[in-house]
Amino acid sequence: MSTYGDTFFDVRELLCELLRLFYAKNWVSGTGGGICAIESPGRLLLAPTGVHKERVTPDDLFVVDTSSGEVLEPPRNANLRPSECGEIFRAIIAARGAGSVVHSHALSAVLACDLAADDCLAIEKLEMLKGIPGVTNTDRHLMPVISNTPREPELTSEVARVLADPRFEKTRSIGVRDHGAYLWGADLWEAKKHTEVYHFLFEALVARGGRS
Amino acid sequence: MSTYGDTFFDVRELLCELLRLFYAKNWVSGTGGGICAIESPGRLLLAPTGVHKERVTPDDLFVVDTSSGEVLEPPRNANLRPSECGEIFRAIIAARGAGSVVHSHALSAVLACDLAADDCLAIEKLEMLKGIPGVTNTDRHLMPVISNTPREPELTSEVARVLADPRFEKTRSIGVRDHGAYLWGADLWEAKKHTEVYHFLFEALVARGGRS
Amino acid sequence: MSTYGDTFFDVRELLCELLRLFYAKNWVSGTGGGICAIESPGRLLLAPTGVHKERVTPDDLFVVDTSSGEVLEPPRNANLRPSECGEIFRAIIAARGAGSVVHSHALSAVLACDLAADDCLAIEKLEMLKGIPGVTNTDRHLMPVISNTPREPELTSEVARVLADPRFEKTRSIGVRDHGAYLWGADLWEAKKHTEVYHFLFEALVARGGRS
Amino acid sequence: MSTYGDTFFDVRELLCELLRLFYAKNWVSGTGGGICAIESPGRLLLAPTGVHKERVTPDDLFVVDTSSGEVLEPPRNANLRPSECGEIFRAIIAARGAGSVVHSHALSAVLACDLAADDCLAIEKLEMLKGIPGVTNTDRHLMPVISNTPREPELTSEVARVLADPRFEKTRSIGVRDHGAYLWGADLWEAKKHTEVYHFLFEALVARGGRS
User: In the complex, which subunits touch B with 3 or more CB pairs below 8 angstroms?
Assistant: First the structure.
């Protein structure tokens, strides 16, 4: 259990609610995308792979060890397999102290990454930048963009590399060309906030045609 | 009855739910579009034609013979007529072993087909391609595009032709110029997945202006 | 009471439901747009003007004489005034035998009218044209486009003129530059169908940039 | 309590409902945006800052003195802080007699402001202009556009300047470059109307590429 304002919420229920919300926004369609959240120290809730994300229920979630990725509690349904994003999620958690990571398959993320001349996107002149901790609307915010690979776990070393790059110390998102983005926050609520903030920035970049 | 994860679902209810979902996405507006699903061996559920698709109820469905197309059980309402797509649906089921076929009238499908230089669309450099069985993000996936005809049953021979073309053995969609697309899967859940995957691909192709 | 398939529906409830649907599609935002439907011979239900259309309830509707426009039954709330579209609605009903007319303030209608070189839009090469009675996908369908005027009733003579023009005998829509469109059908269900069909055509025309 | 038509509504409930509506339209995403409404003379309801706006409940609202901005009643949750827009909201209320002000973070507002050559947008040739009191579709309506600043309260002097500029006496909106817009009306219902009207105008300006 956690709180938002005065309201208690169940982490598993909220995680599933956010999947439904992101599905409605077309960010996790066609069974794509994913999400995780730390339920309690060392226990990471992880959505299953290959299923319609808006249909995931609290009982469908894996509990994995946040450090090792070992499955501590599988879901009741033995046919489910844990998200392929698990290793990347844990790399982001380890490097940034995140409590929740979202994996988006939004078209706006793909199209924004198309605009990246080299290994990052420079985002500036947008009030929405203030939604990222430590960033203000007068900053030129750098978000790393990595290349896609045939299998999702192969992205992990690239993710680790950009997380260690001091140019990107303020980012809460990593773009993946032709694929989407990873986005994170201290908990599900902040992950939701950063997911919405960056998707707004992606849409703005695309609408402005890469100009600022 | 079937299952998704641990949940039982009624095929007729799910078929109608998907029509409401696709209507909300603007893929079956103005009474256009359609859907079918095999209820049990030899029995194909078929939505009626000429009605607002988001209003179709389980009682409105026809049961037709999967092989012959003969109406086995008409719906209670004697004014309803079976979808004109029936023959094409059965051709796809016969050729590909599909358990469910969707007919989309999405604008994104029309605009994607506008980009096809000859008889197919080449789709590449998109992670979402992995949503199609046997296709990966490094493939150049070919989706057939056929010309529209004044009456829907006249499309059947063209559909049969492209289904037999070895270039298109992996496709789960056939585009129809100025019209939309047919999309299928092993059951309603996979048809939903492929419908969402290809519509994402259509939107990506259109947004990229045919470039990849 | 009327029926759709096997389902009875109340004309007043359905009229209000369609206003909520059209509001959700952004076709009657900012209190704009309107709708009417014949409840029984000679009695025309008319939504009030200047109110948020998605909040209109069955008790808010005027009953006016279909021929004269005289208010037969005002709504309970004495502050409401009948839609300014009343005269145009009745002109369309008289000329075409319509049972329901929708007035849309959709941006897609405005942008489609921007593409009209002279006094009409030519729409072709779209399967969705079959949603208009007597029109097929190989036709070049002409939809009249008239100029906007400072007050809505001043449009009536222009509406009457295009309704009498034999070029437009098959149209179920009249576009108004910088403003929107009027759309109609034999009853609310057909008006809904034609409204969805033409809005799809508007969006297709705009996306194709006036090319076909 | 107030009324809309025959229906009583609670100002606090309606304010929260509008936040959910605007969130669904993507006008207050990522915890951005805000709203206020006068509950009774001298008492201004103000949404909290930094929270997901679609989750705000009636108990989360601040009551501040309309003239001084002093907090008269804080919400039950002591962690909430009042919206940073408070000062701007009160400046608009003081100058224009508004009863409710909305702060939008819509992308369409940002993109429309991108089109402003100098300190305002000229909007013309749109029926939707009639949704602004005293403006008609043949007018060339001027909406002020001000530059963004690092902190929201720093915008107040610019807001005060354009509110005093006779060129803008009819406007119900002030655009802020790279940021969004402030929009207002006599009460929540009129603020909703003007918010929808101007967002339609923003989208039309952007779609027309600044041409009219």
Answer: A, C
The yes-or-no verdict on residue D22 having pLDDT over 50 is yes
Q: Chain C: nearest CA to B30, how far in angstroms?
A: 5
Sequence-distant (≥ 6) Cβ neighbours of residue D1 within 8 angstroms: D8, D9, D10, D11
User: Is residue C127 annotated as a catalytic residue, yes or no?
Assistant: yes
**In this complex, is the C-beta atom of B118 within 8 Å of any C-beta atom belonging to chain A?**
no
Each of the 212 residues of chain B gets a pLDDT tens digit; together they read: 445 655 567 999 999 999 999 999 999 999 999 999 999 999 999 999 999 999 999 999 999 999 999 999 999 999 999 998 999 999 999 999 999 999 999 999 999 999 998 999 999 999 999 999 999 999 999 999 999 998 877 899 999 999 999 999 999 999 999 999 999 999 999 999 999 999 999 999 999 997 65
**Any D CB within 8 A of A200 CB:** yes
Give the gap in angstroms from C-alpha B9 to the nearest C-alpha of chain A.
12
Task: Specify which residues D104 forms β-bridges with.
Answer: D181
Asked whether residue A42 is assigned to any structural domain, the reply reads yes
Helix (H, G, I), strand (E, B) or coil at D56: coil
DSSP, residue by residue, C159-212: HHHHHT-GGGTT-SEEEETTTEEEEEESSHHHHHHHHHHHHHHHHHHHHTTT--
ipTM comes to 0.95
**Can you give the pLDDT at residue D1?**
42
CA torsion angle A123 A126 A129 A135 (round to 10): 80
Stretches where chain A sits below pLDDT 70 are 1-8, 211-212
**Which residues span the domain enclosing B143?**
2-207
User: Is D22's Cβ below 8 Å from some Cβ in C?
Assistant: no
Pick from D5, D127, D199: which is nearest to C179 by CB?
Answer: D127
| pLDDT value, residue D4 | 65
Task: Give Cα separations from D85 to C134, D46, D50, D82 (angstroms).
Answer: 56, 9, 12, 8
CB-CB: which of B51, B179, B206 is closest to C5?
A: B51
Catalytic one of D13, D127, D158, D169: D127
If you measure CA to CA, which chain D residue comes closest to A198? Answer: D30
The answer to whether B5 contacts A31, with C-beta atoms less than 8 Å apart, is no
Cross-chain residue pair B4–A55, CB shorter than 8 Å: yes
For C175-202, what is each residue's pLDDT tens digit? 999 999 999 999 999 999 999 999 999 9
| B208 contact A CB<8A | yes
pLDDT at B9: 74
Instruction: For residue A130, give the 3-state DSSP assignment.
Output: helix
Question: Does a structural domain hold residue C159?
Answer: yes
Question: Taking 50 as the threshold, does the pLDDT of residue D161 lie above it?
Answer: yes
Smallest CA–CA distance, residue A22 to chain D, in Å, is 12
Say which CATH number the domain at D188 has.
3.40.225.10
B42 to A19, B72, B74, B94, B183: CA distances (angstroms): 36, 10, 15, 11, 20
pLDDT score for A17: 97
Beta-carbon contacts of D175 under 8 Å, excluding residues fewer than 6 positions away, are D109, D112, D113, D116, D121, D143, D144, D145, D146, D181
Domain count, chain C: 1
- Average pLDDT (D58-65) is 97
In a domain, B212, yes or no: no
Chain D closest CA to A25's CA: distance in Å?
Answer: 10
pTM for this model (two decimals): 0.96
C193 within domain boundaries: yes
Cβ atoms of D27 and D19 closer than 8 Å: no
Whether the CB of A27 is below 8 Å from some CB of chain D: the reply is no
